[in-house]
C-alpha cells in the first residue's frame, strides 16, 4: 500500500498554503485521512487512544442502513412491476430499483458533501463525517417519485440551516435528514404525500414501462385514514408495500437495528422506549376505537421502525442523559401515533414526532442535570 | 473501620510490558533535576545559584506567594544549572550528585498537627501535598477537612504499591500516624490490599474500592466518601510520598527514594528500579529499550503521564516510567474501516471484546482519528465513577461558564479523573487539558 502514501507525499505541496490547488485543501485532506490513518500522535493528555473515531461510527451506521437500502431497491422494482402488470425476475426488479435510486444517492452525497467541503475549507477544519449517514438516509425517507432537484434543494437547505449555522455535526438541534424531509413536506407536499408518489412511474433503460398519468397507489397508512387497509401483516413485516424507499421492511430495518445495538452506537434505551411509547398509545386508541388497526400494525407501518431505529437514536439530537433517553423515546412513540390517529391531514406522524422531541430533548436533559446540581447544593446546606 | 465500595464504571486497559515484581537499585550518580512544573500551582523562585553546594533536604526553590513552601534537593551535590526557558520561566534546577550522599538532619519530635505541618514545610515534603479543589499544591494555611491517600492505582502499567511497600511497612505506619495529627486521614485500598493494610493500620479509616480504572484515583475516593463542596478543602498525598514522610519521622532525613516501575511494550525487560526522584532517565532505562527511534518515553503511565525523552529526568510525582511505540512511522490504509484485530477498543465495532480480558495490547501514541464536536452521548460518564455529568461539565468548561462549572461539580475533579474518558472518547478531545484549563480559570477568579 506504499503507493498511496507516495501519491499523497508527492501531491501534498500543491495543496498546501501557497500551492496551486490550495482552494481544495479540505478535500485533499479529507481524502488523505480517508485512505490513510493520520499518524499524528497525541501531544498532551493521554498517550494512548481507543481505536474508535467518528469515521468508524458513521460507517457502521451506513452499514446498518444497507439492508433497508437494498430491500428498498428491490421494493421499488417490485411495486413498479406490480403496478405495470409486468412479470419480472428478482434481478430485474432489483436492477430497476437500483437504477431508480442510485441517482438520488449520488446527488444527495454530491450536494451535501459539497457543502461540507466548502464549509471545512472556509473554517480551516477537517471535514466532518456526519453527512455520510444523513446523505444515505435522505433518499431512503423520500418517496421514489420525488424529483432530484427538489431533493437537492432540500438537502442544501437542511445542511446549511439545520447544521452548519449551528456549528456542524454534533452541534445541531434537529436531525438534518428530517429537516430535509420536513422542508419538502411543507414546500412541495404534492410530491411528498398523496397517492401518486409511491410507485416509480417511468421505464428506466428499458426496464419496466411508463405508467399512465392517472395511476395512483396509496400507502397502507393512507388507506387506514380513508377506510379499509389492504395490506396483510405479512406484507408489512416483509415490506412489499408502497411507501418511502427504505421504510417499508421491518425485517431489513431490524437487521440494521441489531448491528447498531450490538455495537452500542444507537442507544437501546431510546429505541426500546419509542416502541413501548408507540405500542401503548396505539393499543389504547385501538381499545377506545379511535384507530381501526392493531397496535403492532401501527408499529410495522409507515416510517415508525425506520424512525425509531435510525433517526430517534441520532445521538446528537436525542436526549443526552441516560434517564432522559427513556422519556425522549417514549414521547416520540406517543406523539407519532397521536398524529397518525387524530390528524386527518397527516397519515404519517413519525417525522413530526421526532422533530418535535428534538426540540424538547434539551429540556428533558435540563431536568436530569438540574437534579444532579440540586443534589450538590443540598450537600452544602446539610 | 473498613467500608467497602463497589464501582462499576470505568475501564481497565491491559497493556503489554507489565513490570514483574523484581527490583534493583540504581546508584546515585549524575545530574538530578527538580522541575517546578511537577508542583502545579507553584510560582517558583530559586534560592540557590550555580556552584552552590547542597545537601539532600536543602531548598532549591520556594513558592514566591507562600515562601514557606519549598522544594528541596533530592541528592547532595553541586548546583550545576538553573535552567530557564522563554520569558525566564524556571524550568529546572539541576544538581550534580556527590559520590557520597549527605542528608540534612531534621528534629522530628512532633506532638501536634501544627508541628507536623511545620516539619513537612521545612523538609520540603509539604510540596507533595495536593489539594482539592483545583488539584494544585496545597496551601499550608488552609484547614483541610481531611487527608485522602490512595494506596493503589489501576492505571495501565502503573506501579504496584503493594510491592513497593515491602520492607517499608514501618514508614507507612509512621507517615499515616504523623498525617493524622493534621487532619483525619482516609485511606483507599484495593480488595487485594485490604487484609494487609488493615493489619498494618488497625485504627485507620479504610475504604476498599473494587472496580475498574479509575477506581484507584483519590478523586474518585473523595467523591464517594466525602465530596468536596464549595469552600471546603481536602488534601491528598501519593502513597509513596507517605513513605517519604515516614522516613522523615523515623530517620530524621529527607529520603525521596522511589521504587519505579519501568514498563511498556518497548522495554526489553520490564522491571522495578529503586532510584531517587529527579534521576536521569538514561540511567533508569540504560540498555533496556528495544529501539531508540519511534518510541515514546513517558514520565508516568500512558494515561496521565507526560511525554519526555531519554535526556529527561524522573518527574517528582510519578511512580512509573513507561515506554510505548510512538506510531509515527505507521501508515495504515483505510484503518478506520479495517477489523484492526491488534487494536483495543471499547466499541464493539472492533473485535477486542472477543479476545478476552487477559489479552495484552501494544498500543501506540497515535490519536487514530480527528478532533470532532461531542457526538456520542454519555461516553464520558461511562468512565467516570462519580456522581457528575462529565459531558456537561466539559461543555461548561469549553464555554467558560464559571457558575455552571461550579454547579456541575468541577471542585471535585482533577484532570486525571478524566483520563480514561479521554482514552475512550470518539471525538478525540483533550479532556485532561480542558479540565485543567477550567480549574485554572476558576482559580484565577477566586
Structural domains of chain A: how many: 3
- Low-confidence regions of chain B: none
Q: How many DSSP-defined strands of chain A?
A: 1
Radius of gyration of chain B: 21 Å
Provide the low-confidence segments of chain A as ranges: none
Please characterize this protein's 3D structure.
- The complex is a heterodimer of chains A (382) and B (446).
- Chain A has 382 residues and is mostly helical.
- Chain A has three domains: 2-35, no CATH class; 67-217, no CATH class; 257-382, no CATH class.
- Helices cover 64% and strands 1% of the residues of chain A.
- Chain A is built from 16 helices and one strand.
- The longest helix of chain A is centred in the first third of the chain and has 34 residues, at 90-123.
- The mean pLDDT of chain A is 88.
- By secondary structure, chain B is of the alpha/beta class.
- Among the domains of chain B are: 2-24 and 107-251, Rossmann fold (3-Layer(aba) Sandwich); 30-97, RNA polymerase II/Efflux pump adaptor protein, barrel-sandwich hybrid domain (OB fold (Dihydrolipoamide Acetyltransferase, E2P), Beta Barrel), CATH 2.40.50; 381-445, no CATH class.
- In chain B, a hairpin with a 6-residue loop joins strand 6 and strand 7.
- The mean pLDDT of chain B is 93.
- Chain B is 22% helix and 21% strand.
- Chain B has a seven-stranded mixed β-sheet, with helices on both faces. A six-stranded mixed β-sheet of chain B has the order 2-17-16-20-18-19, with no helix packed on it. In chain B, strands 3-9-8-5 form a four-stranded antiparallel β-sheet, with no helix packed on it.
- At the A-B interface, helix 1, helix 2, strand 1, helix 3 and helix 16 of A face strand 21, helix 10 and helix 11 of B.
